Amino acid sequence: MAEPAHGVVGRIYANLGRLLGGKAAAGVLSLAYMAIAARALGPADYGVLILVHAYVMTVGGIIEFPGWQAIVRYGAQALTMGDRPRLARLLAFAGVVEGVGGVLAVAVAFALAPWIGPRLGWSPTAIAFAGPYSLAVLASIRSMPAGYLQLSGRFDLLGAHSVVAPAVRLAGSLAALLMGAGLKGFLVVWLIAALAEWAAMWGLGAYAAWGRLSHRDLSGGVWTAPRENPGLWRFMLATNADVTIADLSGRLAPLAVGWMLGPTAAGLYAVAQRATAVLAQPAQILGQAAYAELARLVADGDGARVRGALSRAVGIGLLAAAPVCLLIGLFGGRLAVTIAGAAFTGAGGVMLWLALARTVLMAGPPFSAALTALGRPGLSVWANLVSGVGLLLMLPPLLDWLGLIGAGVHALIQAVVSVALLTLCVRSETTPLPDIAARIEA
Q: Between residues 116 and 322, which one has the greater pLDDT?
């Protein structure tokens, strides 16, 4: 008997609830360390700090090769069949591929920093430390254990992990403030937090796998994973492109602001982004929470409830986000001053636009997760390519015309176009809903 859509939605939001506990704590800690760093450094140096971090994470996002979606999708099939060795080999394969991409990303970030830094207005201190800071790329080289935790339903551990980096940044920011360490001190703190974030996720993944997986499961060889999971390489390439393109616009925006308007404007933009992150983070984890359940429906061959479960999940998310968006719109300027100080008053103007964009984008990650679970990640890649990369061409003229507000207007335009395209793609794939099992085999 088919499970009602509301049953799947219930599990999605149960997963979301376990994640949100950690995310809520992380959000509070993030506002605290941002307030300390912004007040200690001022808009210009805080902008440099943000630009150094954004540069490294952008290079990492372009080059790295995360595999968590493949782990959840193909791992769900392995678990359904009770094939533990296949799951272990899939995890090992994804980990090796991700590790190679991570090493390459660190090397490229290190090599390009002396050329990129001066064009973004970095100070000599930041340029000198940008090489070692390239190791911060490792913070995002952790999708293999994250995928396993999702597959295992350990959203409590994922939520706990969310607190690691903000807690380290807060403690380090307090120490840097008391010691008067300046920009270099805060760069060191941000790097330590990134490495802690990386190590903690791998540690939690190992803890969850202890006693459930064994090195003996790898006796068939790691490189048998593509043969055991037909279409694995194609799926990983498509989902990696989707994730890269979806994140690229958000990562490039502060770099574009810094390139055209300078580090001070980048600092103001960063405060506005952080203040509205309360809307962005639930969207991302809603996509994660939904994907695991949608992948199980696909693995079971039960696609009749996919569209209903997805529309309910997105609708609830949008209703929850609307009041927060309204409050940010009404009190954005006061919020920026309260968080970062009077020097950041200029962040209030762009905050409303970013809040509206993030509210619209609440629907994005769940729709992308649905397309991926349906075996059509290429459609999500196409939608994000058009809205994310294609519309980036509008950002420079908007910045030139409207100043910092142009970045917010651009974000809202991108959000509307992205969600509209993803909605059309999901509708075309689920009305009428084809036989999912037949599509996977094809």
A: 116
